[in-house]
Amino acid sequence: MNNVVLSDKVKKALNNQLPILALESSILSQGMPYPNSLEFAKKAESLCLEAKVVPATIAILKGVIHVGLEENQLREICEKETIKKISLRELGVAVSKKWDGSTTVSSTIQIAHGCGIKVFATGGIGGVHKTPPDYYDISQDILALSNKPIIVITAGPKAILDIEKTIEALETASVTLLGYKTKEVPSFYSIKSNCFDLHQVDSAREISEVYTKNIEVGLSSSTLVCNPIPKKHEIPANEIKEIIELACTTAKNRNVFGKRLTPFLLNEIVKKTRGKSLSANIELALNNISLGIDILSYLK
Fold first, then answer.
1. How far lies 114's CA from each of 3, 109, 118, 121, in Å?
2. Tens digits of per-residue pLDDT, 65-74?
3. In degrees, to the nearest 5, what angle opens at C-alpha 143 toward C-alphas 133 and 177?
4. How many helices (H) and strands (E) does the chain have?
5. Does the reported pTM lie above 0.90?
6. Which CATH number is 4-296 given?
7. Which residues are catalytic?
């Protein structure tokens, strides 16, 4: 893949077919406030290294795509307030204009797959937003998931989304939907959603087998693994619902839409839950990384 700089650890891992876990950077620059973001990033990378898995956090610095960040680069992504949020459609723009940017789920999938990385752990995926009938907002994550054969581990669609419409869109896009020890789609902060459209798998081995068979039969779409937030860290759906609705109303009144919408809503929810949602976000993302590490132990 052109315009990409691999860290020494990632380069060595690719050359020697060692396990690599892709990590996005938008969760650091737009999903969490500093210094919580940096603390999370270091813990995420430590989890990988302790398991002898190479962490490949992906970001764009001065127009150069980096796969695997050094500590100073990681700090810059977390701390710098001018970091742009780069989705799939803006990769070429970011490179040509020499932007500093964090990658979303869609752009991370594109870059990771292009480098030969098979597994990507994130927090929540984007999808279909809750909007009036005469307007729609659908994340590029669905398009990326539809045409890149990679394993993506998530705690479900972000809670601010229309969960049922998001699952329908993923099904239409031929994305394999697996539930880790569940048939119910988790809704990011919460375990429950009342949407039962997942094929349940009960081990990392099963996930790797499904992915391998998808490749063998020629599927070009992703294998999406929905991994519920651990129960002790969840915010029950009935508790978070009103807060999300209030945040959505605030966004509408302030005319916040497009790529600014998700970061705005997440920040509003953090304020209204007095930080409880931030703690949940961190725990679910670490939980997904742990599952990603387990899956890699079964992939060749």
1. 11, 8, 10, 16
2. 999 999 999 9
3. 90
4. 12, 11
5. yes
6. 3.40.1790.10
7. 24, 158
